[in-house]
Design brief:
The complex is a heterodimer. In chain A, 39% of the residues lie in helices and 22% in strands. By secondary structure, chain A is α+β, with helices and mostly antiparallel strands. Chain A folds into five domains: 156 residues, Rossmann fold; 167 residues, Topoisomerase I, domain 2 (Orthogonal Bundle), CATH 1.10.460; 114 residues, Topoisomerase I, domain 3; 117 residues, Topoisomerase I, domain 4, CATH 1.10.290; 87 residues, no CATH class. In chain A, helix 11 packs across helix 12. In chain A, 41% of the residues are buried. By secondary structure, chain B is an all-alpha fold. The chains are: A alpha+beta, B mainly alpha. The interface between A and B is medium-sized, with 36 and 32 residues.
Chain lengths: 693, 68
């Protein structure tokens, strides 16, 4: 931290909480707080150097086009604008920019202390370029993975100018590509639907959104057209020395009833023999430290938190200096994070104190995962004691991160697996189980570990037993499972589309746009139609190939192996090719999407004309208060009180039919089992008659 | 032309989704016949329709075929 000739050092952070933390770390809490255009600014002196720490509030600059008319396309003439020009509601951005501009005037030196990743780098670059008068090249870069005092101090001591600025260039190129992609495709789709007579509705299609929706659509069609195949499960109950035990038939699925019955008959009243007993001890290493995706998946499995929520919670924990930066692809814990200091910190927390103390007594060699990230280590606790009471979700995520960290230093668990093969009447049966011999890391990660003991009766090769009975059970093949938010995130990771920072938001956007129903990730008719239309007229938009190629090239820009301008040019060319296909078929595209919108709306809301007031429409409504669905009339505000309860489970679809007895609409209810038709009128004469009898 | 089951655009009576589901239901009959030894077409459709694993479009097709 060399002293500046005159003026102060202006530090730009990404968020106000981070600015406060950085100021506290550098000043030892002796800051003088003031407000500039509504933004809190921290002033202090550190080692004879005057500092002013301020913050953006996320992206204060955004890409946009110069057209006021939202229906214009194609759009390629785009530029960075203050976010308040792009989003009218974002008045805060104007105040932030104004404050930073004023502060920049008195600054002699600039430090970019935004989060060290693509987004943070982009935010810092834009603020330094546009609000500080082109200081992005000369500004120093402070890089840290936690907001603890020590990490921040070291980051400022080692701060230096960014040479190639690959991360910022990649970030800016990503924003530009995504804007051009999204704005053009969304406008062509929305405009096509509008021209087809439907009222305006945004039909968006982002670069990662398209292939992600296509994954869901592919699975959805498989689920909806699925016809289960029957099979039979055979199991035997046997007895040896007064002990009964159950073993499964060697073939898990018997494909015909006749074969299953033959096995049962062949085994009847027979004596069986154990043909082999195999015991094996296996070592189960600790799970690798958390990358962002691993943390999101685990929090979904254990707590049911959607990935976006987990990331928000982890972000809050990071801003409280309790965990490291949560947007990371790394599964590795480098020694530079100082294992010993973190464990010493955790020792002060009663629930981790014993494990931390035990670990501190030995060598510290954590298990490392395969994935690495040069910017940040795996998500880990900092060892800081919470200064505030954590709310239950924060406490849950903090505990999960901490236990995973502790588990990484523990020895592998040891489990014994036993497989006993049995022969009865010429047929094979198998008995298997397992138990934990040595808990190792499981003791730290106990409540979250997925291990279960299954006992197997003691048996040796050649032991004989009696057949009590053999059961056959008719089963049906299960349909493909729907993606949940966690498995979809995993699929996106595997396909290398999106980034660790954006995947969760893309999933949320699919729900917000009405392409997917949030709870069970069921694709709506609109979602199906959008994919179907794209596959027909602009197939590259919904395949992973193009999106993945762009991701790979963006990584090359990050690593400074490729220029951003070249990538943007190539991408614009690809988008143009797809736009041509859509534009040439605008009328057909519009009709198809319009039809899907009509089906979606009809299927989800309007049940039919109201038989009470004759002029309103009966609609399916979800109560804001209770969350339950019911039927109400669109003329409610004019006094029509026609209403009816609805089943709360299953999918409800409209039918063109009305009840012949009361003229109320009949709906079709699809739940597990047989679909059924229901007259929604509680006062239907047939129902009242049924009650009397 | 519209699909008689869902109102989507269709070339014949059914949209592409229901057409594909129909082929699956028809193909499933051969598998079920082999699995059970013998099963009546109507019984098969009834079982498919009632099975909780059957997909929505396949159920709609089974229901439609039952009525033919």
């Amino acid at each position: 931290m060399a002293s500046a000739a005159s003026g102060y050092t202006l530090v730009i952070c990404e968020k106000p909480d981070a600015a406060r933390r950085v100021a506290e770390a550098l000043s030892g809490r002796g800051t003088q707080n003031s407000t500039v255009d509504g933004a809190t600014v921290f002033k202090f002196t550190c080692r004879g150097e005057d500092f002013v720490v301020c913050s953006a509030q996320g992206h204060v600059y955004a890409i946009s086009d110069p057209f006021e008319e939202r229906t214009v396309y194609p759009v390629f003439d785009v530029e960075w604008y203050p976010s308040n020009f792009v989003e009218e509601k974002n008045a805060n951005a104007a105040r932030r920019i104004s404050a930073i501009r004023k502060l920049a005037e008195g600054a002699a030196k600039f430090v970019n202390a935004c989060d060290f990743d693509t987004e943070g780098e982009t935010i810092g670059f834009n603020v330094l370029r546009y609000a500080c008068g082109g200081k992005e090249r000369e500004a120093l870069r402070a890089k840290f993975s936690t907001l603890t005092k020590d990490d921040v101090m070291v980051a400022f001591m080692e701060a230096k100018p960014q040479v190639g600025q690959g991360l910022a260039r990649a970030g800016r190129a990503r924003h530009l590509i995504d804007f051009v992609w999204g704005v053009n495709l969304s406008r062509v789709l929305s405009q096509s639907a509008l021209d087809s007579g439907h009222k305006y509705r945004t039909i968006s299609m982002g670069r990662v959104q398209g292939p992600t929706l296509a994954f869901l659509e592919e699975r959805e069609t498989k689920i909806r057209e699925f016809v289960p195949t029957p099979f039979w499960k055979v199991s035997g109950t046997f007895e040896r020395s007064g002990t009964r035990f159950t073993a499964g038939y060697s073939k898990e699925r018997v494909e015909s009833r006749a074969t299953a019955e033959m096995v049962r008959d062949d085994c009847r009243d027979k004596e069986g023999i154990a043909t082999s007993v195999v015991r094996s001890a296996v070592q189960v290493p600790p799970p690798p430290p958390f990358s962002t995706g691993d943390l999101q998946k685990e929090a979904y499995r254990i707590f049911g938190f959607p990935p976006s929520r987990t990331l928000q919670i982890a972000e809050r924990l990071y801003l409280s200096a309790l965990v490291s930066y949560p947007r990371t692809g790394s599964q590795r814990l480098p020694p530079s994070i100082n294992y010993r200091a973190i464990l010493q910190g955790l020792e002060r927390l009663s629930r981790y104190s014993k494990v931390a103390k035990d670990l501190l007594g030995g060598a510290l060699n954590p298990v490392q995962g395969v994935k690495a990230d040069s910017a940040h280590p795996a998500v880990h606790p900092t060892g800081e004691v919470p200064r505030r009471r954590l709310n239950p979700p924060e406490a849950a995520v903090f505990d999960l991160i901490t236990r995973r960290f502790l588990a990484a230093f523990e020895p592998p668990a040891k489990r014994e697996l036993v497989t006993v093969r049995l022969s009865v009447g010429g047929h094979g049966f198998v008995l298997s189980g397992g138990r934990t011999l040595y808990r190792g890391w499981i003791s730290s990660y106990d409540r979250y570990a997925n291990t279960r003991d299954t006992s197997v009766p003691s048996m040796a090769e050649g032991d004989r037993f009696r057949v009590v009975r053999v059961d056959i059970e008719e089963k049906f093949e299960r349909g493909p499972a729907r993606y949940n938010q966690s498995s979809l995130l995993e699929k996106m990771e595997r396909e290398n589309i999106g980034t660790k920072a954006t995947r969760a938001d893309i999933i949320s956007a699919l729900v917000e746009r009405g392409y997917v129903e949030g709870g069970n990730m069921m694709v709506t008719d609109l979602g199906l139609a959008v994919v179907e239309t794209m596959e027909k007229y602009a197939p590259a938009i919904v395949t992973t190939k193009l999106t993945r190629e762009i991701e790979e090239r963006l990584e090359e820009v990050e690593g400074e192996a490729r220029g951003d301008a070249e990538l943007v040019r190539e991408t614009v060319r690809s988008i143009t090719e797809q736009l041509v296909g859509l534009n040439a078929n605008e009328e057909l595209v519009g009709r198809e999407i319009d039809a899907a919108l009509a089906v979606t709306v009809a299927a989800s809301h309007v049940l039919g004309p109201c038989p009470a007031c004759k002029s309103g429409q009966l609609r399916m409504i979800r109560s804001r208060k209770t969350g339950k669905r019911f039927v109400g009339c669109s003329n409610y505000s004019s006094g029509c009180r026609a209403s009816a309860p609805l089943p709360q489970r299953g999918t409800i679809r409209t039918t063109p039919n009305v009840c012949p007895h009361c003229s109320w609409p009949v709906v079709r209810v699809m739940d597990r089992g047989t679909p059924w038709r229901l007259c929604i009128n509680l006062a239907c004469p047939v129902k009242l008659e049924g009650k009397k009898t | 032309m519209k699909c008689v089951l869902c109102g989507r655009k269709a070339v014949s009576d059914l949209c592409t989704y229901h057409e594909r589901a129909k082929r699956k239901v028809e193909a499933g009959y051969r598998v079920w016949n082999k699995a059970y030894g013998e099963i009546e077409w109507k019984d098969y459709l009834d079982k498919v329709k009632r099975n909780e694993q059957t997909g929505q479009w396949a159920k709609e097709i089974a229901e439609m075929l039952e009525g033919i």
